[in-house]
Amino acid sequence: MLLQRLSLCPRLMLGPKTLQTRSVSQGKNPSTSPYFRLHPVRQWSNVPFLTVPLARAHGKSFAHRSELRQAKRIVVKLGSAVVTRGDECGLALGRLASIVEQVAMLQNQGREMMIVTSGAVAFGKQRLRHEILLSQSVRQALHSGQNQLKDMSLPVLEARACAAAGQSGLMALYEAMFTQYSTCTAQILVTNLDFHDDQKRRNLNSTLHELLRMNIVPIINTNDAVVPPPEPNSDLQGVISIKDNDSLAARLAVEMRADLLIALSDVEGLYDSPPGTDDAKLLDTFYPGDQQSITYGTKSRVGIGGMEAKVKAALWALQGGTSVVIANGTHPKVTGHVITDIVEGKKVGTFFSEVKPAGPTVEQQTEMARTAGRTLASLLPEQRSEIIYAMADLLTEKREEILSANKKDMELALNSGRMPAAMLKRLSLSSSKLNSLAIGLRQIAVSSQDSVGRVLRRTRVANNLELEQITVPIGVLLVIFESRPDCLPQVSALAIASGNALLLKGGKEAANTNRILHEVAQEALSMHGVKDAIQLVSTREEVEDLCRLEKMIDLIIPRGSSQLVRDIQRAAKGIPVLGHSEGICHVYVDHEASIDKVIKIVRDSKCDYPAACNAMETLLVHRDVLRTPLFDQIIDMLRTEQVKIHAGPRFASYLTFSPSEVKSLRTEYGDLECCIEVVDSMQEAVDHIHKYGSSHTDVIITENEETAEQFLQLVDSACVFWNASSRFADGYRFGLGAEVGISTARIHARGPVGLEGLLTTKWVLRGDGQTAADFSEQGSMKFLHENLPIAQPLTGQRTSN
């Protein structure tokens, strides 16, 4: 049968040997085979086993999740709760199909996949119940002669019988599913006794290696039809005994020197206390020394193991050199990609690691920041200002240290040869930049005096019942920025001024500069005991993983390329993102525009800093401006500045020999390039901006005030200017001191976002024992809803009934 299946697999390259179907306990000793060689086991066992050399030298598990991408040989363990339906009678076919798809995809990538599966008992239980019901209904029909059947009770089904009835059906199902992906499978049934007999272990090892060599996925299960019940405390000499599929998967993973064991169950991973309790926290990474701090709950609805058994098996496999991840394989939203996500190094489930990082985890950093951030928000405004002034002074005092760190980053970037010139410019710091930063920080310190706790509205709801709306911090901010170390002190100062906790994730290209600038911020915060309010993420956290901390982070602010912003907006499904993905800014030249203003504004908008998000990308020209001296001067200026021109469709139709026609009118060039297009009117310019723009910044140049006012009213962008460069769309130029970014969103903050954009509000009600019933038809109190002066002190406002 197996040879027949092999003929259906065109990708198999059979060696000179013929694959024979024989039991594990038979056959000659494979140690003489040229395909295998003996390796001594580590200190936890004195029994040798066989292996083949892999791409990665085995012996040590992976220290970090990001290294899981290197895993070549992978064991996937499917727990009973994953494979079976909720009624424990039959298989969860949809869930199983998605798992098979992921395993087949990884197999086709060149990895060696093995599956340890449960499900035979559940499959057999379904089958035997069906047969029993069918036989009972036939007997009843024969004895009663009636079509109506009496209530039938099912006998208790013995697990071994169910396993015997279900094994063949389970394997047939796997075979049919994997065949859809041109992937061959083979079934192997084992018991604990097979691992106690040296000859059987060698045969098992030989069989598995031969199957993997031929690109076949082995599907392994305990032979539950004959397996004896597990014996408690039967682990001898450090070798784990096979009590369940958790221990089987761990034993096989170590015996086969697998790089990774993925154990799928019905829980998200390992918690520090039983899941469902109030304080239970999912552990992203688990270290062998942490097991004393874990409290285990009850086992899952099916299966014979439990989380304690899973942890024990995982630690044993980890000691044997195999990395382990325990994750949820039943969640409908993640089952379709849980295995591939784990292999890609994403933060899914609990990762077991022998290497404990020196510093706190990002979750711990976020908790530390939130706690210190609440203290920061409770400080007096003068105290927050003192911190920001101290930061500005430290930038000057530590100038040489900061520039030295930046020089290291610049040298590394230049030596790599992979960083574009625009990013190199952003990465570079100078004495003048540090001076400008210090000036900006001092402006923020001044403006922060009345930011947090400012009363926006005060209302007397009724006698002795007064309501206030006041400004408060948003909470914990996550700012992700690329190659712009000057962003760190700016954003830090704004977070301090607004009383927000801050989590910073900078690009690795600026690691040295970011580290010293973060030390500057923490040194300033220490003067009032809130050092932990600003945290720099220096671990190997992926941006996508940070965006999943929706219970810990309140707002994400990306500072970088449009691609970075788009990636974060896609990943942050549960956290608001403040920013813009594109800066497609327009300048419209009206037929009543001043020549001098046009040349100055267009040059500055495009050429001052082409890589900026507020640089002009499309120049819209009124039709009457064509073939005039004004238009000729515009073209001459752009050519002098070496700006590459792309012609829009209408502009190209006016020209005999046109520049390269634009591929898309919705393009952010980020360089000395721009598109020129022709419009018939101001209204047509507005329509073009709404269709192809990004709601960032758009400009009109005209001497007609009525036309300008209509443009300012009609254009729905975050910034709309009249006779001014698009480069003015900047927090510093707006007088905000600094900005955390420019937002094109419609909710919360819009345009350059400074201190005000990092605040939200809360309502404070001061009463005197009133209840809602007091204001009902039968109640004695009436609503007043009187607006009170904001500046009026609260004392003396209360009146007697």
TrEMBL record:
One of its Pfam families is: AA_kinase
Report the EC number(s), separated by commas if there are several. 2.7.2.11, 1.2.1.41
Q: Per its UniProt record, what PANTHER family does this chain match? A: DELTA-1-PYRROLINE-5-CARBOXYLATE SYNTHASE (PTHR11063:SF8), GLUTAMATE SEMIALDEHYDE DEHYDROGENASE (PTHR11063)
**Name of the protein:** Delta-1-pyrroline-5-carboxylate synthase
The record's GO CC annotations read:
mitochondrial matrix
Q: Has the keyword NADP been applied to this entry?
A: yes
User: Which family is annotated?
Assistant: In the N-terminal section; belongs to the glutamate 5-kinase family.
What subcellular locations does the record give? Mitochondrion matrix
Task: Please give the InterPro entries that the UniProt record associates with this protein.
Answer: AceGlu_kinase-like_sf, Ald_DH/histidinol_DH, Ald_DH_C, Ald_DH_N, Aldehyde_DH_dom, Asp/Glu/Uridylate_kinase, G-glutamylP_reductase_CS, G5K_ProBA
What Gene3D superfamilies would the database entry show? Answer: Acetylglutamate kinase-like, Aldehyde Dehydrogenase, Chain A, domain 1, Aldehyde Dehydrogenase, Chain A, domain 2
For molecular function, the Gene Ontology terms on record are: ATP binding; glutamate 5-kinase activity; glutamate-5-semialdehyde dehydrogenase activity
**Aspartate/glutamate/uridylate kinase domain: which residues?**
72-328
Q: Which domain of life is it from?
A: Eukaryota
> What is the taxonomic lineage of the source species?
Eukaryota, Metazoa, Chordata, Craniata, Vertebrata
Report the residue ranges that make up the Aldehyde dehydrogenase domain in this protein: 361-628
What is said about its interaction partners and assembly?
A: Can form homodimers/multimers.
